[in-house]
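Practice set, problem 2.
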Amino acid sequence: MFRQAFGKLAVQLLLIVPCALGWGADASAPTYSVKIEFSTRVKMRDGVELSVDIYRPGSDGRFPVILSRTPYNKSTARGGHLELGRYFAARGYVYVAMDVRGRGDSDGTFTPYRNEGPDGYDSIEWCAQQPWSTGKVGTIGASYLGYDQWITALEQPPHLTTMIVMTTPPDPFVESPTGLQSPTYMSWHLLISGHVLHNLAAVDWPSVYAHLPIYTMDTAAGLDSPYWRQVVDHPGIDEWWDPLIYQNKYERVRVPIMHVSGWYDDEQAGATMNYIGMTTKGASPELRHNQKLLMGPWPHAVNSTTHLGDIEFGPTAVIDLNLYELRWFDHWLKGIDTGIMEESPVRIFVMGENKWHDEKEWPIARTKYVDYYLHSKGHANSLYGDGTLSPTPSADEPADRYTYNPAMPVPFLMEPTYAQLGGPDDYRPVERRDDVLVFTSEPFDKSTTICGPLRLKLSAASSATDTDFTGKVLDVWPEGFAQRLYDGMVRARYREGGNHASLITPGQVYSYDIDLWNTCQQLGKGHRIRLEVSSSAFPKYDRNQNTGEELGKTANIKSAEQTIYHDAKHPSFVRIPIVPEQP
């Protein structure tokens, strides 16, 4: 949840701009000079004053407003507010960049998310009442700035007209199914402590992430963070989290939304879940129709690069996102028919094929969900084991076993701080470990597109009263490169959900339903699907210490003996979404 990136602004034009009704390429040209007013004060309902920078067209008159509220300091390069402000103001908008409460130049105390609903409401209504405003207000932003918009929209400010939400985190337990925040969030807490942005390079993050108990990880990072300790005091989901939960309240959000994310965004489930939620549970048929989903081959910094790790996605992977956003705002804030609402509601990039596709819905209706069952002779341990995947159901097969030691967790390949949790990395070095079970399919005899939600049904037992199970889906290239697509996990005590914790009985077999989020990848001829099963992905997720004790409060650890079953009575399979070519 607590990560931010606004995406480098692109220079390439991919999305087609219709010329109907006078809106063509020339309509996107700047027509105004821009004037900037720095550090204007805006009073909230409780008297606390927040600070805004205002980018206005250099002309008298009233204009629609685009509001972006940030904890990352409105005047810094982070977030791109100077560039965005100039872009939109030159095209007939007032762009307002605001430091949220307790950050940057704004007064008050910053507590993550807790004040964003009321403050967002008051900020939107302030924008609507200004002499340079038409009264129509749109909002824009990524990550925290996207979550801020959702929390604000629940308050239903009268002048909120539309939103562009990018890389928006899902609800807390969806993002953090261990019941605790990722250890990597500690770098975010340091970054935004106080009013200024702190230098994360000053900290030895691997040693901080390894610190136990999790409750005092803030002091290990040189920080006193009461909020971090509050989070640890509330594992799973309880009433303390209710103000931050929005994905059960779609009917309260009454505006058209553009949802934007990337297949390698570590928050990508927010965009897909929110699009599904608004198109199926929106307050009216019209509102359900007025939603867009844009998914690129991007990390958390959407539209920032055509290249991730060893993978090049081609020149069309970066688009003119500004122009796409302009067309959206022109339609909803100016009433101009830009043609954007006549286009398909879903636009997705198919990796591997490296092409954009337009679809009518998400998930794609013509998808064929194929269950790939786990098979082995009981020795699927490591890349060199005998694990296979096949659409053929398992029969009488021996179980696979491994030891999970929290002192030596399976690594998740990532940068050392919160900014990006993994990409299309080659996981063969990790697959050398005996505590990683590896199951691989036969090569595909033709190019095959897998695009949609991934789920793992796992039959497993443990010697512990609480433990974790992880799954990861990969595209194995003919030369052996094992490209991570996406992954997920389950904490045994939360197998029935974040609001229902119960320990397991050692040795008893349980069926775990594990959400591996989404991917959209064309596997070339000769490629294979692979599934990894293990019990840790550190430091993306905190380690289960296998003790069954209160989460986050002790340094005690013990090893767990894990058993993965795949027989007729206890099937285990991964559900793969295979999308046929359009007729």
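Problem 2, part (b): a different protein.
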Amino acid sequence: MTHQNLQYNTGTGSLENWLITETVFDPDLLGKCEAIFSLGNGYMGQRAATEERYAFETRNLFVSGTFNKFADNEVTELPNAPDVLWLDLKLDGQRFSLERGKILHYERTLNIKEATLTRRLTWEAPNGQKFDLAFYRFISLDDLHVIGQRIEVTPLDSDLTLSILSGIDGQVTNSGAQHFLEGEKRFFDNQYMRMVQTTHESNIDFVFHTAHTFSCAGKTFEPNRHICMDRRRIFLDYEGINIKKGNTLVIEKISNLFTSRDRHWIDKPYDVEQLKSNGLAHVKEIHSLGFKGLLENHKKAWQEKVWKKVPITITSTNPMDQLSIRFAQFHLTGMTPAHDNRMNIGAKGLSGEGYKGHCFWDTEIFILPYYMYTNPKVARSLLEYRYLSLPGAHKKAKENGYQGAMFPWESAWLADGEVTPVWGAADVVTGKASKIWSGFIQYHITADIAYATWQYYQITGDEDFMLQYGYELILDTARFWVSRLEWNQEKEEYHINDVIGPDEYKEHVNNNAFTNYASHWNIKKAMEVYDFLKEHQKELFEKLNLKLGLEDTYRAWMDKVDKIYLPQPREDLVIPQDDTYLTLKTIDLTKYKQQETVGGIHRDYNTEQISQIQVSKQADIMVLFYLLEDLFDQDVKRANWEYYEPKTLHASSLSLSTHCVLASDMGDKELAYQLFLRIHGIDMGPNMKTSDHGLHAASLGGLWQSVVNGFGGVRMHNGKLRISPQLPGAWSRLTFEISWYGDILEVDATDEEVILTKKTNVNDSIKLEVYGEEVELVEQLKVIKT
């Protein structure tokens, strides 16, 4: 899979299947590589704009958890922080821009293994002079506050006089919205620049420092320069830097960033002067280490924290398969705020302004399984975020007339509550802004969080988490559901009306199957938790009973749970997605199924019209089969697949991975593989516009699920581990590691057999199911596929 601008096979030797290279610069198609080449460490993420500026670029630097609200009629969002990448070059008076002169050679490469971005080019200026230029950057995984840059300039035809502008630019915005107040600008020791800016609503201080080092022919020197301060900008103007023909000038720019929201201040009084002092001392320290020293520490951290810890090897006829899973792991690491349980993962990670940095059910259903099976500590932190945001869930429930925890569809900072925008894109028929109903009636996220809580516990055995947070989450979410049920006198059963299920093309439906089954599961699980705590954790039970009124709630659960309407398979085994879906008209969807860009149906139909057609945006019933697999047999799953998949446009990046795993479960390995290829094509594919607003975080988690839960056959079912690999024809071997109750298990699978190795000894043995056979793993076990 290639595009004229992108190549995926440039890595050789130890870097084979580790590199993605842009070979053509196109100023009209900047968004793709800005997103897929973005760098991050979970604390911050930086979109891959170039050092020089272009008209259609998007320059973004986001810091996790630093949400701000621009105006009362808007929702909170991650503010675009001041730009430290910026560096303008003038080569003998010629402004360096790839829109001027000629590009004689160009390549920009994301090195996934080392988490670096490199750009090398040969440029002919409008006056005919030629130069080699190279740009290197990283965001440190070793020190979360560090951004490192290195620029090299080599004149090829004659001696060069160079001018440079470089510093910190706070004039950037979020699509025009300026989130920061003008703050302090200082220059220390004739070397270190500082900029302080404060978000105007959330009152978060951002403190930046930047320092430069110049060298040529192995010797450092101090060019002539003067300090400049403009509105929201501080920079150095370097003039008259002379470079001999063939020599290389090396510029190192080392920057740091600290904020008042940093966890450092969580247990001590905040002091802005101390924050600034700490930042200045830190930049002096990292500046002394230099680019090379900081880079080595960064590369070592990636090796130790990611590649050694979560190895996945795919032996395939298609090298893109190996590259794509590494791409997913790379970006999942860069976007996950593993350092702070007050923060979560945005739908676009930290790679763009899409969805304003808000987190959705994407985390619990599509991303959390990766961490549950590979880094439970991070999974726990992400679930603790949901516990810490319970006040917002209670507020939303109360405002809507319900009880318990009603989690926001979109979440930001802990105290923000529901942050889904009310208005969206224009209606193609009326021309008016369309109302976004998700924040009002897309309830299933509450059950999704309860499900993820229980799934985490079943995979890790983390009883401490359950005692502190998990049991309460399950109980509190079930309190919401029992208050949300509506009695239908005619049918003598409880319904859940006026909702949006996972399929967002169907608004204001009654009895969405996924929502009803998920709420039923949530209440049943809460009843189990109630009985367990009452018998085995009496002190905690009394505490939660006082806090949540459990005894009264339990009686309501008992009275209502078995009367909840759960849509059943019809005679043809198809389960109604909701009360009306199967009665809607059908149209020929071929045109929309074959379109390269998603959402094409909205050019022909408005939301109201789509709601009257049997068409789905994404998996709905299929998610139900995936999460609650034991409720339905294979015949029912197959019948519903054959009915709903042709009507599903996969217009959400969440959809394909669910279908991929289910296709693998049904034994259709080649269909599963074709779906897998489409998943890694969402961001890595040839369409140069898919990622303009940022990466698709959930699809990256879904890609890992497709490999490990789908082809690797790993599943937790009723507390028991199951491993039944089903490799596609293109693969001859799949090797990966998972965590199970504290032990690390290596799975080495071919089409004929699977070898399981317990690499740690937390448990004496592990009982599991392999290809339907009950086995016990002590050290190593080989199972032949029959």
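Answer key, part (b): The radius of gyration is 27 Å. The first strand starts at residue 6 and ends at 7.
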